[in-house]
Amino acid sequence: MLQAINTSIDTISGAKTQFVKTFVQNDEVAKQLQTFIDAQQSFAKTVAKTTVDFFTTLGTSATSFDAKKAFATKK
After folding, report:
1. In this structure, are residues 52 and 2 in contact, taking their beta carbons and an 8 Å threshold?
2. Residue 5, CA distances (Å) to 11, 17, 28, 66, 68 in order
3. At what angle do helices 27-63 and 2-23 cross, to 10 degrees?
């Protein structure tokens, strides 16, 4: 799952990079835009990994949850 998400992120970042290379004539602006694109890519991958890890843990916990044991009254 994470691999597919990372591939999508890489594809979008690659398209942004290609756009900058094609249409931005000023090298200083292009450099700053590329830095921003790299930061976006890094952030998106971090969010994706954290989200996948969270829901994997949640799913694992949900399948092993024992309601009778958790809500049993002690006498």
Report:
1. yes
2. 10, 18, 31, 32, 37
3. 170
Q: Which two tokens stand for residue 28?
A: 């200083």
Burial degree of 16 (CB within 10 A; 0-12, 13-18, 19+): middle
| Per-residue pLDDT tens over the stretch 54-69 | 999 999 988 888 878 8
Q: Is pLDDT at 75 greater than 70 in this prediction?
A: no
Residue-averaged pLDDT of the chain: 93
pTM of the model: 0.80
How many CA atoms within 13 Å lie on the side-chain side of 14? Answer: 6
Exposed / middle / buried, residue 70 (Cβ in 10 Å: 0-12, 13-18, 19+): exposed
